[in-house]
Amino acid sequence: MPAAAPTDATTCPHCQATVGAKWTYCWLCNQPLSGEGADLPPQTLRTSTGTKNLMSLTTKVVGGAVGAGLVLVAFGLLLEQEYGGILLMLVVLFPPAIYTGVKALDGRKTGDEPQTLMHHAGVFMASLAVTLSTLSLIAVAIGIALFVACLAICASMNAR
């Protein structure tokens, strides 16, 4: 009889979802896969992880409110026909959104422990800070270039 092929997946004892071998929590039911509480029924665990569930709910509500606010701002700009503002929102928010999505998909491909919504929000905010910093540096560089160009034009006008 041939030996079974090694696998990097296992099954959650609570909901029977397929999970990575190195994971400590199930991606579906958010219950511990081994260690303290792994042999308890899911109802018992849910009451003991109430703080974690509250934090997750708070993060979802805040993230949803920020997302809804951004949609309302974009809709208001669209109604006022301020297309430059919409374009600016896209330029600022699109790169962090793409980066966050790529990092989330990359984590799923490699079989790492699934990230929480808070982790995704942190990745988005960090990449938004990098995007805003980069755009600020570009704006300063353009300002300096325009200033130098104006000085050169003024100097050439005075030389005549």
Radius of gyration: 25 Å
Strand ordering within the main sheet: 1-2
Q: What does the average pLDDT come to?
A: 76
Strand count, sense and barrel status of the largest sheet are:
2 strands, antiparallel
Query: What sequence of helices (H) and strands (E) makes up the elements?
Result: EEHHHH
Q: What percentage of the residues does DSSP assign to strands (E)?
A: under 5%
> Could you say which structural class the secondary elements and strand pairing correspond to?
mainly alpha
Shape annotation: elongated
Number of DSSP E strands:
2
N→C terminal distance: 96 Å
Proportion of residues in helical segments: 55-70%
The helix count comes to 4
| Uncertain stretches | 1-6, 39-49
